[in-house]
Each structure stands twice: as structure tokens, then as C-alpha cells.
Fold:
Amino acid sequence: MNIMDFNVKKLAADAGTFLSRAVQFTEEKLGQAEKTELDAHLENLLSKAECTKVWTEKIMKQTEVLLQPNPNARIEEFVYEKLDRKAPSRINNPELLGQYMIDAGTEFGPGTAYGNALIKCGETQKRIGTADRELIQTSALNFLTPLRNFIEGDYKTIAKERKLLQNKRLDLDAAKTRLKKAKAAETRSSSEQELRITQSEFDRQAEITRLLLEGISSTHAHHLRCLTDFVEAQTTYYAQCYQYTLDLQRQLGSFPSNYLSNNNQTSGTPVSSTLSNVIGPSVMASTSSLVVTPPSTVSDLKESSGSRKARVLYDYDAANSTELSLLADEVITVFSVVGMDSDWLMGERGSQKGKVPITYLELLN
Structure:
């Protein structure tokens, strides 16, 4: 027998087996043939495996959405993964926002209060972006990868063996049907031999499938450890973000009060009372460091007719010819003028004079 004849006979045998299974499956669906039921324990294991697969896929996909909300970025990463290539590094949203803030602060002037604040905020956003990147990498390695390995590895093996079990059961039931229909002694003897073989193959495949399915409990234990790692990664990430923003909040607390509210000169309601009404006294207590009040000696100066030396706290760009531009850390002479707005003093530097905001000054003894 040459190879071609062997292949032709094998194809014919496979076609016959497929046809036999198809007929048996159809007759079972129509209620015209009996079906060998799996034992209850094996059925429970199959149900548990299917449930594990469905929920693992849902959790895995939603975790990917959580870590990377951009669907286009997820598709790109998926393509690179399938091509077994490393995806190009891209700047994330916090890092991009941080860079915009730093660039804006640099253009506005690092010496100005707003420019300085933008740069500090930008640096914090970049640190948050780095923490976000670390969360994604850690979660992908310790949580998503094990879940994906189960779906693409262990469960595929289970599904393959389950399919083989289904085929062996169809072969067994088809053999039982042929035995019932056999009338001649020779045909009956052949059918009985076929039934013994198919029963043995079915029992063997059922045992293989059962052993694989019993490993689902170990899978759950492994996924529990991975879940713990994921929660620890989130804990680290949120702790880092909290610390970064807390440090930033403390830095911004040293800025002039008129930079903490855009409406402080136009609203008749003090900033502190407005915030207290909105967010409550307990939260205001924790953020009270943000409100900067002018030194008490300013009121003393306004009531007197004398002048004092003052140190400039921040750069200030004059808005018009009536104001005096300031440079941080320089010392100028200030004095009060009758009828001047309560938030301003008159400043003098050599032959230059002009109004200056009191929140930019520290009076010297």
C-alpha cells in the first residue's frame, strides 16, 4: 500500500466517523436517540470551568480598560503583542498635562507667581504620570498576564479535551445504536466489539478531562494571589498620588491669597467662608494652610503717616503706569496714601513710585 492509498483510506475513515457523529448528534437533538449522560461530578467541574473562563475574560478586559481607557491605544498594543514586537513608548495623559503646564509656566516666567505655580503643578503631574506607568506595568505583569495565560493556555487545553470527550461520547452512543439495530450474529459480534472499544475510549477521555478540570481550584488560588498583587499595586499608586498632591498643596499654600481665588477682589464673600459653605468646616480645617493673610503690621502702617521698608515676596508685573513692577527679594520703601484701596500701598524704589499689592510684601522691622 502506497502513501496515497493510505491517505485516501484515512480520509474515508475520518469522513465516515464525522458522518456517524453528525447523525448521532442530530438524532439526539430530535429525541430519536439516547444520550449517555456524564456523571454529576464531571458536569459540575465543566460548569465551574466555563464560569471561570467567562468571568476571567470580563475581569481581564475591564481591567485593560481601567488601565488604558483609550481604545485605539489598546488596539495598537494588541497588534504589537500579536506581532511579538514591543509597542512604542507613548506619553500618558498626566505626563502630557504636566509638560503643558511646565511649558506654560516657563513662558509666563518662572519668577512670576502663576508661572512658578504652573511649573510646580506640572512637575507633580509628571510624577503622577510616572506612577501611572508603573501601575500599568506592574498590573500587566502580575495580574493581566496570569489571567490571559489561563484563557489562552489552560482553558484552551480544557476546551480541546472537552471536545474530544464529546466526540468519544457520540462514538459510544452511535455504537450502542448500531448494536441495537444489529440482527445477524456476525454483525452483532462486531458491534459488541466496537461498543467495548468506544466505551473504553470514552472512559479514558472522561478521566483525562476530569483531572484537568480539577485543576480549576488551583487556578482560583493562583488568581487570588494575582488579585492581591493588583490591589497592592493600586495601593502604592494611590498613596504616591496622594503624597505628590499633598506636597504640591503645601507648596501652593505659600503663594499670595489673590492667586488662590480668581474672585477675591470682586466677590463680597470672603474666600474662606465661601469654601466653608461649599465643602464643610472639617475639610476647611485640613486646607486652612492655603489661605495666606497679610501681616498685621500692614494695618498699623495704613493708620500711620510714616513709611517702612518691605521685602518683596514674588515678582510682580505692573498692569499700568500707576503701578510699580517688583522683583522677588528686593527691598523697597512703602507708605500709605489716603483714599487708596485697602489691598494696595504706595511703593518707592529710588526715583520710581507706584502702587504695589500688599500680598506681595513682607514688612521689615
In short: The CA atoms of residues 273 and 354 lie 32 Å apart. The longest strand covers residues 307-312.
